[in-house]
Amino acid sequence: SMPPEILLKIFSYLDALSLLSVGCVNKLFYDLANDNGIWLKIYSSCLQPKRTIWKMKSEQTEAVPLGCAALHDKKPGYWKKEYILKQTAAVKTRLMQLVKPLDPYTGLPFKNKEAMKVSGLSWIIVVKDKNGKEHVIEKANLSFKDTSVTILWYSTNWLCLDVVSTLKLFGVTPLFPGQNKPPNKNGPHRRSLIAEYHLANLTESSVAIGADKLVQLFSLNPGLLLGIWKEKNEIAFVMVSLHYHQLLERSILGSATVQYAPPPNKPVLDDIDPEYGLHGYSLHLDMHGRRCTYLCGTFKNLFCRKGDIANGYLRLTVVSLKDNKKHLPLTGTLGLSWETDVFTGNVKDCYVMTLTLLDEIGKPFWCFSAPVYMELSSKTSGLYDYMGPIYTTDYADSEGKVCVKLVWLEETKEYIIISLVLYVSTKKVNNWYGTTY
């Protein structure tokens, strides 16, 4: 019942975040909260240059009557939109400055944590049932590694697996990061779709990678791990591993409905080098649980001979079975820990593999972070140097495959990597380098 003029006067004392929030109350409030006069003052006061001469001009601009062209010739909400665009551009500029310095070993920005803090980035999952109703799970535990972050969600309000349709992973950023302290989860924000998983036929579309007494683990690309209660057939927890190379772009630059698609690589054809695209690769490999690291290493000068190209793949041998000097021990017993509000556990022989393959100029070429598992291949190795059972770990996606062989040494209670081979898709290489293999 309050006159619009009085409401408009009250709204003129609000900051940008409060204006956006109050505009969600009803249509009248939305129209009043879009007033160009209010937003022009916010725009001028927050974004005016720091130099004194420009400040004087900004004050003159604010003193111009509200009937000027800056107000009446613009549609309602024009200055609100301009303010939001300017603030968003300022944050993106700051982020670009942070992600420019690169780690010489991984080829990735080494200020990822700082960039995520500046952007106010967080992650949520949205579970949709077969009736179309969505359930948002926000509470998450983060675990950071050299080249990836692992996110764990658990809740007491999970749906029964039989009624679950899809699960979507979103990056969430506040519209004005850093202006609302502490962060307000109900404040204005935007979602960026990272991945969508179809769970209607989980046992058929996913890979079972292990179990303990309470839960069974299922894996779906990219990087999703579902823990299912054995007795209830309900979700116990959701774990996602994200590689830093795709992390910020997919979490910020996409929309709520469409995933971010990175621009294609612009190849520079080297006519002088007859084996262009077959050599000069570098690998950074991280094998870890949620909090512990089993192996973290960098391997240089990887190459593929033309005779090793077969079945649509280039073969890059990182650790050879014949060269025991390069065999690698793992630290600790492999396992993937999990937790919920009440229970905790550890699934043996499972871990997260994070791979970063760089091209000859140090640019990330193939990157992923995904849960994997070990499988017993042979009870005895048959090798002269090692006596013990042989285990294998395999990973595959649209860009390549990874094959790892390990031997368990009972005397020293450790695993030794005796073979590590990458198979890179020739289609990926041809698109990247502009070659034909």
Task: Write a brief caption for the model.
This protein has 437 residues and is of the alpha+beta class. Helix content is 23%, strand content 37%. It has helices at residues 4-11, 16-22, 27-33, 36-47, 52-63, 69-72, 78-98, 112-119, 202-205, 244-252, 426-433; strands at 122-129, 134-137, 141-144, 148-153, 164-174, 189-198, 207-211, 215-220, 224-229, 235-243, 281-288, 293-302, 309-310, 313-319, 328-329, 335-339, 344-348, 350-358, 364-373, 375-378, 390-396, 400-409, 414-425.
What does this molecule look like?
The chain has helices at residues 4-11, 16-22, 27-33, 36-47, 52-63, 69-72, 78-98, 112-119, 202-205, 244-252, 426-433, and strands spanning 122-129, 134-137, 141-144, 148-153, 164-174, 189-198, 207-211, 215-220, 224-229, 235-243, 281-288, 293-302, 309-310, 313-319, 328-329, 335-339, 344-348, 350-358, 364-373, 375-378, 390-396, 400-409, 414-425. The protein has 437 residues and is of the alpha+beta class. Among the domains are: 108-175 and 187-251, no CATH class; 281-433, no CATH class. Strands 13, 14, 15, 20, 21, 22 and 23 form a seven-stranded antiparallel beta sheet that branches. Helix 4 runs parallel beside helix 7 (78-98) and helix 7 packs antiparallel against helix 8. The model is unreliable at 50-67 (pLDDT under 50). It comes from Scytalopus superciliaris.
